[in-house]
Amino acid sequence: MRNLYLFIVVIVLSCGDHNQNNEMVSADATLVSVPNEKEMNHLLPPPPPNEESQKESEPQPIPKKIIKKGRLEIEVGDINKSQKTILENLKKTNAYNEGEFFSNSEEQEMLKMTIRVPNQNFDALMQSFGNDLGNVISKNVGSEDVTEEYTDVTIRLENKLTYLEKYRELVKKSTSTKDILEIQEKIRGLEEEIESSKGRLKFIDDRVKYSTLELTLIKNKPRNSVTSKLGFGSQFTDSVAEGWNNFVGFILGLISFWPFLLIIPIVIFVIRKWRKRKMEAKQ
């Protein structure tokens, strides 16, 4: 009987230990349970930014925008010969003649040329003209830094393009006719401003890439009435007209002094009368 009792006690204790071990294992499993994917994403630090996306987000610096321009006036012996030399120099420097103006008077022949030359060849072209053509009368070279203006226009253009896309999205979502018309009017205004900004940037790029040179060639003619194209009769008529104009100018000049012409006789009269009275008083 006693042995039976001991056997039952042993069995009960064995069952209790087994349940306790199961509870400990369950508790340990709960403590080491793996979190789900969302919890992992929340716990892990954010991934480092992609180098390419970071480079794209950073604004790219705009290179210097420098506009070179110059004026050159040269006295030459032969306009046609000098023009041929100029055209040869233009080919060497990849420049071109944008326009020209020629005039021929009694005193001189004059040829004005507007030349566009690549920025890097501007100085070389200026030196070639000074050495090959003739006597340099005047020379003026300058530069203008338009980097700030170019940057400002670029930033404004990007902002306008962003607003334009937003307005176009609003048009698709709008249901009111009034709202659609108002948005379309804003879109039209933005498109005009965008085209103007693009045109300004294109103009600056062109002026930066190609410098502008205003070149003037002058050939002075000797003043000789014998070699003049005008005949004696024309010169005589011009001389008479010039003399008459000088005479009329002289008379008009005298008339402009009429207050002095009026005051001077009065002053002389007063002085004479005063002297006369002084002499009578002495006698």
UniProtKB/TrEMBL annotation:
Query: Which residues lie within the region annotated Disordered?
Result: 39-64
Q: Where is the DUF4349 domain?
A: 64-271
**Signal recorded as keyword:** no
Q: What residue ranges are annotated as transmembrane?
A: 247-271
- Specify whether Membrane is a keyword of the entry: yes
Q: Which residues lie in coiled coils?
A: 173-207
Q: Which UniProt keywords apply?
A: Coiled coil, Membrane, Transmembrane, Transmembrane helix
The identity of this protein, by name, is: DUF4349 domain-containing protein
Q: Which source organism? A: Epilithonimonas ginsengisoli
